[in-house]
UniProtKB/TrEMBL annotation:
GO terms for molecular function: heme binding; iron ion binding; monooxygenase activity; oxidoreductase activity, acting on paired donors, with incorporation or reduction of molecular oxygen. SUPFAM superfamilies: Cytochrome P450. This is Ent-kaurenoic acid oxidase 2. It holds the Pfam family p450. It comes from the Eukaryota. The chain crosses the membrane at residues 6-27, 48-65. One of its GO terms (biological process) is brassinosteroid biosynthetic process.
Amino acid sequence: MDAPAMAWWCAVALGVVPLLVQLFWYWNDLKFWALLRWRSKNAKLPPGYMGPPFFGEMLSFLWYFKVVRRPDDFISSKIQRYGEGVGLYRSHLLGSPTIITCSPTTNKFIFQSPDSFPLHWPSPELVGESSIGYMHGKQHLRVKNFIVNAINHPNALRRIASAMQPRIVDSLRFWAEKGAIRASHETKTVTFENTCKVFVGLDPGPLAEELDRCFVGLVGGVRAYPLDFPGTAFHHALQCRKKLNAMFRGELEKKKKKKGGEAGDMEGDLMDGLMRMKDEEGKPLSDEEVLDNIISLVVAGYETTALATIIIGYRIPKGWKVAIWIRSIHTDPKNFEDPLSFNPERWNEPPKPGTFQVFGGGVRVCAGNMLTRIELIIFLHHLALSYK
């Protein structure tokens, strides 16, 4: 090849290769921007970056969450690059175009717009199509009323407190005798034991340990990319879901045979309450609804748009996912001084409106928040009065 031809091919390579790299790197941004402009010339997407095809920002997401273990840096990088005044950013996660909201105002808007943002995560294969985490509208309200009444009824609250207190007291005594403990592991253990007792009346033992292992697998799949083939976390989660369904169904059948007590009595648990309660029309929950909702209470929410929506001038196209990033509000020094330090005195004054969203909001506010509050109150009461 002569010199002119070599120079021509080098010029082509130097020009085309960078262009192809840029096209690959910004493929999702170009693709979804073009689709939006084709539908509406004046519409604009929130600021952000959507990454290359298929991968999107998942590699960056996994880097911050799994490798460096600094999940806050994922959203912080967007705030630093695009500014914090917006409160929402575009991305591409878990195979879907995604809008991340991370301000009190935008989060509140999403929470209070259930018709525009129905829940579509976790996958119904994992939590069940009859679960409170997947139902919408009147069906969601009906099931939520069952759960809230089963937990928040005065008799139910007394039963929950009486079931939790001995286990918490014993755990604190055991930790004190042991000396050094792994606080995260130990508190998860006692919390799960309380959950088993309150939800299905199970005491610690082989069945509870198997439930624990299955729930770990299920939650791992909830956070994983939904690829269903052997070896993936999602596939393992589906197998765990089947095992959980079988174990809880066994407990449900035992309760049917027992046929003892009334709804809300001191011997009942959450499963008993859900089995016995009836709605305003006299209809009880089906067995599948009971099982799905017992299982789904361990998972959180993720939103997806049913309608094209505009927030502070930015378009959220129909079908896009919306991830409510509550953690960024709770770890923002503007909302809480030195947010990562242990400082109980910070709660002597009420937080700024909308800055404490630990239980969600709107119609999707956590149905089990009273159960969590009671467990924390009992734990802190005995810890403060009995230990130094």
